[in-house]
Amino acid sequence: MSESANSSASDEALVQAARGGDMTAFEEIVARHRDKIYARAYTMMRNEEDAVDLSQEAWVKAWQRLSQFQGESSVATWVTRIVINLCLDQLRRQKRHRAESIEEMNEESGGVERQMPAVEVNPTERLERAELRERIDQALAQLTYAHRTVLVLHEFQGMEYKEIARTMDCSIGTVMSRLFYARRKMAVLLADLKSENEADAK
Amino acid sequence: MNEELQLKLQAYCDGELAGHNAGEVEAWLAKDPDARALLAELQNTRAALRQFGDDLTLPAPRDFYWSKIQREIRRQENRRTDELPVPWLAALRRFLMPAGAVAAALLGVFLVGEQLRQNDPSRAADMEVAFSDSDTFTYRDFSSGTTLVWLSYPAEIEFAEPDPGDILD
User: B35 near B1, Cβ under 8 Å?
Assistant: First the structure.
């Protein structure tokens, strides 16, 4: 397939061509979805370098496994699953190398955030998109990997509880507990960030 | 508000609660302002995160990003090609492996048979006292066809202390 034909071809046609060994077709698929795959890796890893490396590794694996792609989901969703699994493996390896913090030990029970009153005002309303992104980025960085992952899989990936449990190799109860804690902590962090910004502005 | 109710509320927010339980949560929401505030918080956080989801751009130019992927694909394909055996060696292996297995099986059968043959009690070496009174021993090894007779002479019995009762005056 020529470069111009590639740019107008559907994902399905490109996948078909790539299965036949057409690397330019595969390059077009990468170009179309690379931001999405990188974004998913970044939200999980919180590190630009790791996110770039893992997203590239995901594309290499996708090329090698193209024959296994059944087309039940979109190619972007399929590669996103691959990158999520790579990130989870990497995070598990990293976790083995560092001591559990008190916060991590507290993660199943939910710590103090579970008991806090609800944040009444939407802390993200009236924010510019870039500001919202930065704020959420900062808050996500403060979550443990288990909480961040469960949020990413549920909110960004749209996975159901049982699917997350299977992916993270834990019970549905644990998923629900982690998700609840992660959301509450996010709400508190976002509210804190908002009040800090307002105090700075005065 | 206990943990179970909080998690039920969250499941309701995520559309993961079945009919009866959903009705229960709705009734609870109608009468509890804290529950309504918590639901609003969960919904706000979820909405903020979903907006943010894919709002990131790869910090690398297209060619640069792709070139590393391409190199890695080629490197792995070359490695796989290098690992493939040459055709004649593969053919030889295909012949040698079953032949070797058959030879090993035959050798095993032979060795087991030999072991059983040697352990056959009817063929075992035998030692018997042919004439106990004369101190004569016979050794027979059936496998080698050897018979050995050992005579003690003069017979040890002849040098034995005579029973006092046997001594004749």
Answer: yes
